[in-house]
Amino acid sequence: MTLRDSISADASLVFLNNDEFAESITYVPRSGPSRTINAVVFREQIQTLDENATVTPIWQIHVANDSTDGITSDELDLGGDKLTFPPRDGKTALTRSIVQLLTQDHGILVVECQ
Amino acid sequence: MADPVVEQIAVKLETRVSQLTSSGYSAVFQASSVVRPLVRDLSETPADKQIVIEQSDTEIDEALSHPGNPPATAWVQTFDVYVNINPSESSTTALSTLVNLYASEIRKAVTDATNWHNWDGLAINTTFGAIEKSSPNGSFIAVKIPVVVTFRTDEDDPTVARA
User: Fold this and answer.
1) Residue of A54, A82, A87 lying closest to B37 (CB–CB)
2) What is the pLDDT of residue A49?
3) Least confident residue range of A3-12, A77-86, B69-78, B102-111
4) Residues of B in contact with A114 (CB under 8 A)
5) Based on CB atoms within 10 Å of each CB, which residue in A31, B24, B103, B132 is the most buried?
6) Prior bond to B158 cis, omega within 30?
C-alpha cells in the first residue's frame, strides 16, 4: 500500500469514523441524487458580519475525498452543491450551501457552508 | 397597530420582486427565493438566483420636509436588492451577462405596478441607484440594485404617510 493509499484509507476509517468525531450528513449535489456521507462538522466556528450588519454563521466541514463515504474533488460543484446537517447539536437538520473549498488533498476535503 | 411607513414599503418591495419566483413571470430569470435577512440567520442559506433585500441607514431630507401641525419629515431610504450569482461550475455564461440580465429583471419587477414610484401612496418618489457587483456575505458574488425611496411621515408618527 502506498502512502497515497494509506492517506485515503485513513480519511474514512480514522478521521471520519462515526464512532468517534464524525457523523452522518447528507450530500445534496446541484444535480443528481443525494446520498449519506460521513463528516466532521465544526459548527458555527466563525461568524461574519456583512456590510448590512447581518451575522452570517459559517460551518467548516471535513469529508472524505471519496465517491461513496464522502465527496470527490472532481464531482464537487461550488455552484450549487449543498449539505444537510443540524446547524447546532441537537437541532433539526437544515440544508446549507457549500460556498468554498478551503483545502483539499487525496484524503480529505474541507468545505465551508453558510 | 399600523407598521411604520418604511416597513410597509419594504413589504411591498418584497412582494414585487417575489413575482420573479413564479414560473413564467420572466422569460429569462426565475428567482430561487426572496429573503429579508434576520439578525442571526440559522435558517437561510445563500443560493444561486436568490434575491436578498437589505436596508441601509435612513436619511432625512430637510429640503423636502415641510412645516405643519404636525410637521412632515421627509425620509430617504435605500433598499439594496441583491441577486446572488452562483451558477454551476460548468456554466459557460459570462458573469457580466448574468449581472446585466438580473439587474434588468429586478428593475422591471420593481416598476411593475401602476404609479410604481409612490408605492400605493406611501412615497413621493423612487429612483434607482447605480448597479454594482458586490459580495455581501463574503462568499457569493451578487449584483446590487439600489432602490431609493423618498417618503414623508408625520414628524411624531412614522406610521402616517404624508403627501
Assistant:
1) A54
2) 63
3) A3-12
4) 45-46, 137, 139
5) B103
6) no
Q: Which of B41, B45, B48 is opposite residue A79, by nearest beta carbon?
A: B48
> Of A7 and B93, which is predicted with more confidence?
B93
B149-to-B7, B58, B66, B73, B80 alpha-carbon distances in Å: 12, 10, 18, 14, 11
Element (H, E) at B150: strand B141-154
CB-nearest partner of A57 from B42, B54, B87: B42
Q: What integer is the mean pLDDT of B35-46?
A: 81
A95 interface with B at CB cutoff 8 Å? yes
Q: d(Cα B45, Cα A114) in Å, to the nearest integer?
A: 6
Q: Where are the alpha helices (DSSP H) in chain A?
A: 3-10
Question: Any CB–CB contact under 8 A between A96 and chain B?
Answer: yes
Dihedrals phi, psi of A96, to nearest 5 degrees: -120, 145
Q: Along chain A (114 residues), what's the average pLDDT of each consecutive run of 10 residues?
A: 82 83 95 95 74 76 93 95 94 93 93 93
Q: Whole-angstrom Cα distance, residue B8 to residue B3?
A: 6
Question: How much is the ipTM here?
Answer: 0.81
